[in-house]
Amino acid sequence: MTKVAVFVSGSGTNCENLIKHFKDSQDVDICMVLSNRSDAYALVRARKLGVPTEVLSRREFNDPFVLMPMMERYGVEFIVLAGFLLVVPDFLIEAYPDKIVNLHPALLPKFGGRGMYGMHVHEAVKAAGEKETGMTVHYVDSRIDGGRIIAQFSVPLEGDESAEEISAKEHVLEMRHFPEVIENLLKQQ
């Protein structure tokens, strides 16, 4: 059974979706949810579903003598970033090569990089007059949103949607496809 940690910073709809998807799995155990924010609603969602939670400040997250013992304590073998807003430190990437993936709310390589998260992405998609939007699941490397793409799903835009409506369309894709992408990826590990 592969032990998976989910890292989150916000409300945690994707985190909850992953936990529910793998709830009865014989192959995948969501062994913990980690956040950099103690007020992240994702922590409440995880606890309600019986998944242990941890909170680390930015400083603690970037300290290998704090983070790595925690990963070892939970036996983490794979990491999923689901709305996690801190940059992953190199020591963690080196410890988990091709075993850290991120969900990005746009079709990379467009609309990625520093500052491109959440509503900022959807506002940029609208401002650019894009004809479609979508989600990207990619490996995490030392470049922000620069790792190798694993899967992408898109949805057409009419051109008159607000950033909030673009976000809602993209979120439907996340709910539908993200757990399946992670499941298929873990089967290949």
Task: Report on the architecture of this protein.
The chain has a domain at 1-97: Rossmann fold (3-Layer(aba) Sandwich), CATH 3.40.50.170. The chain has seven helices and seven strands; from the N terminus they run βαβαβααβαβαββα. The chain has helices at 13-21, 41-48, 58-61, 64-74, 90-95, 118-127, 163-188, and strands at residues 2-8, 28-35, 53-55, 78-81, 100-104, 132-139, 149-156. The chain has 189 residues and is α/β, with parallel strands linked by helices. The mean pLDDT is 96. α1 packs parallel to α7 (163-188) and α6 packs across α7. The protein has a seven-stranded mixed β-sheet, with helices on one face.
In short:
With 189 residues, the chain is of the alpha/beta class. The protein contains 7 helices and 7 strands, in the order E-H-E-H-E-H-H-E-H-E-H-E-E-H. It has a domain at 1-97: Rossmann fold, CATH 3.40.50.
